[in-house]
Amino acid sequence: MKELEDRIRRDGTVKPGNVLKVDAFLNHQCDVALFDRMGQEWARLFSGKRIDKILTIEASGIGIACVAARHFGNVPVVFAKKTQSINLDGDQYVSSIYSYTKQREYPVIVAKRFLSQGDHVLLIDDFLAKGNALHGLIDICHHAQAVIEGIGIAVEKGFQEGGRTLRAEGYDVQSLAIVEAMDASTGEITFGSREG
């Protein structure tokens, strides 16, 4: 999606350690108009597929998933929580994932009443690098016996293995921007072509 690539070039910041900061418009301050066009593009890419629910993970995926849901007939958005709380009651699906940016492992939790056997689910997230978060969501979907119709990603780090692994596993991964290389010393970002 050229608009997203242009925005990353303009407002993104490359940090040492393969970190791409897009907090000015994607995952801290939110450009809702951009989110809307991203949702429209995912709806085009996944047209013809039955989507009953969108599943994401807190916190950065929630905004884009909620706006995208409007383009899928206002389906419910369910987000996996990263911490146990008194508000999480009843039976739960739990998986464990390792966060590269937080450098620690944590649980992801979805109440069973919000994800059911036979639900047709679209996974959406802001970033795909190694694929750990998505594999946690996939694990939850498998426990729920939900059908994963596809995976929508805002920014994929194509130089890391997550996207290749998920596609090799048979998932329909549609990333709106694929970063093939980035240089912290120059700030240069190179994009590759999208799958599909």
Word description of this protein:
By secondary structure, the chain is of the alpha/beta class. It contains five helices and ten strands; from the N terminus they run αββαβαββββαβαββ. The strands form three sheets. A six-stranded mixed beta sheet has the order 4-3-7-8-9-10, with helices on both faces. A two-stranded antiparallel sheet has the order 1-2. Its main location: cytoplasm. Keywords: Cytoplasm, Glycosyltransferase, Purine salvage, Transferase. It comes from Bifidobacterium favimelis.
Key terms:
single chain; 196 residues; alpha/beta; Rossmann fold; two-stranded antiparallel sheet; 5 helices; 28% helix
Short description:
The protein is an alpha/beta fold and 196 residues long. It is built from five helices and ten strands; from the N terminus they run αββαβαββββαβαββ. The chain has one domain (2-191): Rossmann fold (3-Layer(aba) Sandwich), CATH 3.40.50.2020.
